[in-house]
Design brief:
two-stranded parallel ribbon, 12 strands, elongated, 7 helices
Amino acid sequence: MPQAELDPAVLEALRRYDSPTLSNAIETFDVRPRDVGFASHEVRCMFPDLGVMVGYAATAAIRARGKASGDPEPLWTHVRAVPAPRVVVVQDLDEPPAHGALWGEVMANTFTALGCVGAVTDGCVRDLDEVRALGFHFFARGPGVSHAYVRVESAGEPVTVGGLTVSPGDLIHADQHGVLLIPAGIAAELPAAADRVIAAEQEFIRWLRSPAFDPARLAEMRPRH
């Protein structure tokens, strides 16, 4: 894997924050441009009630159009090589995408057994009630009816989903707002940075709601992150 496995305590700490807060915290380190590092709104959270998902990326690409077959075993093997907890990130190569669903009740149970906590795809997903009850996270373009001729085209290679390029082993943080890529080099420092972001924002909000509020001081008082 291109990134080293982190202390599990770091992952547990990251679960305490929502993705916008961590996005703001990442900005304070100036390690990447502010307009990259997250998936577009095309990839949305299907189960907001499940809360935050954090895990290392296993990657695959699929197609569902055209009668053909594929072997899922390379994906199963690849997933097992990625540190747990695992998130399967799947690029749908069909044009347009989301014609057939790789993800449903059977696949969610299969990958839960393989130590995965959820899936991120620019394709579609199905069996929503059953998968939600399992507690398996789905981030997808939307729901779909059929699996069509879905097959795994590749596994363990970089993929692009919702404009976000993900490599095997990348650290994913996702919630009701969307999918965020966590830079491993600053991951351990992000909880403290997130606390600073929250403190600055709350101080500003308290000032906005206080008798001391002065519109002329907005530029001076607003948080700088």
